[in-house]
Amino acid sequence: MELFRSVNVDWLGKKWYFLGFSLIFSVAGLISMGVHWAHIGSPVPLGVDFRGGTQIQVQFTQKPDIDKIRQAMDAAGIRDSSIQNIRNVDQASSDDVLISLPEQTNEAALDTGRQQIVDALQAHYNNPFTVRNVQVVGPTVGKQLEKQATLATLYSMAGMLVYLWFRFQLIYGVAAVVACFHDTLITVGAFALTSQEISLTVIAAILTLVGYSMNDTIVVFDRIRENLRLSRREALPDVVNRSINQTLSRTVLTSGLTFVTVLSLYVFGGQVLKGFSFALVIGILIGTYSSIAVAAPMLVAWQEWRSKSGKNAVLPAAKRSRV
Amino acid sequence: MKKNLNGRIALIVAVLVIFVYGIFGVPAGLSGKALLESITKRIHLGLDLRGGAHLILQVVVSEAVSAETDSAVGRIQQAMKTANLAFSQVIKPDPTKPEVIRIEGTQPNQANDIRSLLDAKYSNEYDVAGGSNNSYAVTMKPMVEQALQKKTVQQAIETIRDRVDSLGVSEPVIQEYGLGENQILVELPGIEDLDRVKSIIQSTARLEIHPVIGGPYQDEQAALASVSGTLPPDQEIVHGSGALANGSDADSVYVLQRVPVVAGSDFRSADPGTSDNGLRDVRFTLTNEAGDRFYEYTSANVGHAMAVVLGGRVREVANIKSAIRDSGEIEGSFSADEVEILSKMLRTGALPASLNYLEDRTVGASLGADSIKEGVTAAVVGVLLVMAFMLFYYRGSGINADLALFLNLVILLGFMGFSGATLTLPGIAGVILTIGMGVDSNVLIFERIREEVRAGKVPSAAVDQGFAHAWTTIFDTHVTTIVSAGILFLFGTGPVKGFAVTLTFGLAANLFTAVYVSRVIFEAHLNKMKPGQLVSI
After folding, report:
1. Same domain, yes or no, for B232 and B348?
2. Residue B295: domain span
3. Which of B357, B392, B425 is the last residue before a domain boundary?
4. Which of A271, A273, A274, A285 to mutate to test the interface with B (most CBs of B within 10 A)?
5. B359 and A141 in contact by Cβ < 8 A?
6. Is the dihedral of CA A289, A295, A296, A300 positive or negative?
7. Which residue of A160, A319, B46, B230 could cross-link B424, Cys pair, CB 3.0 to 4.6 Å?
8. CATH 2.20.28.20 corresponds to the domain A12-40+142-308
């Protein structure tokens, strides 16, 4: 069976549609991030890793009643607690509840919150429970993790840029990195739009999808490079279109297969990995899209800009040296 | 032209066997249960799958520095008194800077003597500076301070390790954490009751010496009987090993005074030694302030017994022979071992500085088990979907891809078994991602082969060209992903590290299976093909 026997789509001709599509999602994401920033002081809801504080996951034997839990907290004098029911994949509410307390600046008293919550539930809410998961993060560690996450992202991008510069030419590297930024922006925007938390594992997923998007872009660029070497007279837009069409089969199949595995993770992988798998699901779709819709047109646009401004085109179809 | 593939096939089989061994070791049997047991022995599970506690502690090293300078203050005062040098006070002016000592109110005409005294005794570890207004600043040298901080952290790690051992935790992790900020990482698999752990780590570290009111008794009833049935509020009943009193296995019970004479941070050091009459003993030193207290107590209680209590249990009972100030000996009929242990307990029994908790994550075992179940389900579903699709889309060559995928997983899990790397929940996700990205290589090759076939090449040439052209792309894509996984490994915490590890191992294995193994399978198939037959792809 073969899906894409002879495709001949003019991808570059559709670049304005692509630009519009990307703009809509980017802007929607940015607006949502702005709204979040106004409300909670950060563009996306932050997980315990970054905002610090206490977060306890409690499983009740009977279906939990959020109001009663809040009453129990109040009765024990615990202010600022946030209580949330954890939903299953099918959006039904489970027996698990997430209770969070904000960050303690006094590190000597870091752990008291957990004990207070457990005591409050035992004393004021008649529903036996087990504690499934506890995370207490102090401000020192929170800052360390933030720093680590930022450094990891920056080093990743820089590493990619250097590698592509080395294997191809600078403009390829720049186009690929711009595509990656685009992917990251839209993925983070998706988190803002759905009000999901970003934790360290989500950052790991985002870095992975950056790598994945880079992969995808490289496949197309490889083909462009090969075709440029073979046919010296064709105009660049035509070469790029042909390259995309030739690799379309592989691109769709691979993304499809990787998407299927990641979707399986999202559906079956449980609640702990929810944010992680969500980031990958969105990221793989967008990463594939960006290689065709962002990276390739950027390459062509760059050349057109250079030839318009009279400079020597870096990627002329007629140039014979190595590309 | 048929190629001789026997060597290559042998290599592949050998690889398969080696990595299957990596996963299972040598299993006790072939039943599902036995296999599961052997896997869990070889592959380490992270805390998020096993359940357990992860703590990051901050050692408040300034306390250790402060204790050191406190004793220096005492010694300077003593030395200056002995040398008849006048001063108004020796203090530590700034509580946030425990490394600075100031001598104030000195006489200008004694400046030289003061200088030479300070230089003689303290210039190794302190910088002496003559300040204005007849004062001197004695500051601990930065290198000395740093060495003291490191030693404090190491001591704290030792102490915590002792405490944790008493909990019977299997495979605890206690090590320095982070980049030189005096932090300690403690990971305790299987621990769910964190409060008990914390109280053991923090407070049990206290070593105390209590006056003995009565004992040893056979059991608590006998002890109570000695105080006429009710225990006065200022006394407590403490158990100790029966071996101390009469060599029996059962506990002995003592009645001790509740408030200790000296405790915890009052001890500065302890070493094994020999007493004057040739018996082994333990020599300890107390801090100055504790020494005064101890002197008062011991001079008033010669001939009485005191008990060394560690971890809420009586460890040794000793008789007070004479007044003891800040250094003394604990005598008893100790064996060489016991003396060593007692010294160690006296040394490590006291935490050198207090510990603050910076981070605390506990995963309950039930959540861990759920995570394993969910992760494995997702992986199995993912693998089956991919395998089914490859068969459907690429027909005969799909079998090729599926075999390569299967071998990929075996090598990946075998790597994990051999290297002792930890499998975390994101690690399972990494395995799932490897499946998707790994099959990408096969897709690249197969698409290329289809193109070549469509362009009219014969099967063997098409296969050749397919592999040749796809190789550069496969290599590029794998390298970039491995690089980003490497960065994740460097900057990530435990679970994320696990993800980076499985992704890297999986992609590295994929370079072997998708290219080498697939090629061999194709060649084997080509060898068997009749002329004119087409590749099933």
Report:
1. yes
2. 205-357
3. B357
4. A273
5. yes
6. positive
7. B46
8. no
Residue B134 and residue B271 in one domain: no
How does DSSP assign A193-253, residue by residue?
HTT--B-HHHHHHHHHHHHHHHHHHHHHHHHHHHHHHH-SSS-HHHHHHHHHHHHHHHHHH
**Cβ of residue B492 closer than 8 Å to a chain A Cβ:** yes
* Yes or no: domain A53-137 corresponds to CATH 3.30.70.3220: yes
Q: How far apart are CA A102 and CA A79, in angstroms?
A: 10
Chain B touched by A167 (CB under 8 Å)? yes
**What CATH code is carried by the domain that includes residue B73?**
3.30.1240
Burial class (CB in 10 A: 0-12, 13-18, 19+), A8: exposed
CATH number at residue B423: 1.20.1640.10
What distance in Å separates the CA atoms of residue B399 and residue B388, rounded to the nearest whole number?
A: 10
Sort out which chain B residues have CB atoms less than 8 A from A140's CB and list them: 58, 358
> What domain count does chain B have?
3
- Answer yes or no: do B194 and A134 touch at CB < 8 A: yes
Do B310 and B386 fall within a single domain?
A: no
Complex prediction ipTM: 0.80
The CB density around residue B239, as the number of other CB atoms within 10 Å, is 17
- Per-residue pLDDT of chain A in tens (323 residues, 90 and over written 9): 666 667 788 888 888 888 888 889 889 989 998 998 888 878 888 888 887 888 888 888 888 888 888 888 888 887 778 888 877 666 677 788 888 888 766 665 666 777 888 888 888 878 888 888 888 888 777 778 888 888 888 888 788 788 878 878 778 878 888 888 899 999 999 999 988 888 888 988 888 888 888 888 888 888 888 888 888 778 888 888 888 888 888 888 888 888 988 999 898 888 888 889 999 999 999 999 998 888 888 888 887 887 777 655 555 443 333 44
A111 touches chain B (CB under 8 A): yes
**Considering the domain boundaries, does residue B211 fall inside one?**
yes
Q: Is B209 helix (H, G, I), strand (E, B) or coil?
A: strand
| Contact at CB, B48 and A272, closer than 8 angstroms | yes
Q: Which residues of A touch B491 (CB under 8 A)?
A: 148-149, 151-152, 155
Contact flag A160-B483 (C-beta cutoff 8 Å):
yes
Which of B358, B405, B265 is closest to A111 using CA atoms? B358
Cα dihedral B304/B309/B313/B315 (nearest 10): -70
Q: How far is B190 from chain A (nearest CA, A)?
A: 13
Q: Could A207 and B488 be called an inter-chain contact, meaning their C-beta atoms sit closer than 8 Å? A: yes
Same domain, B377 and B518: yes
Find the length of chain B. Answer: 537
Is the Cβ pair B443, A253 closer than 8 Å?
yes
* Residues B303 and B385 occupy one common structural domain: no
Tens digit of each residue's pLDDT (9 = 90 or more) over B83-93? 888 888 777 77
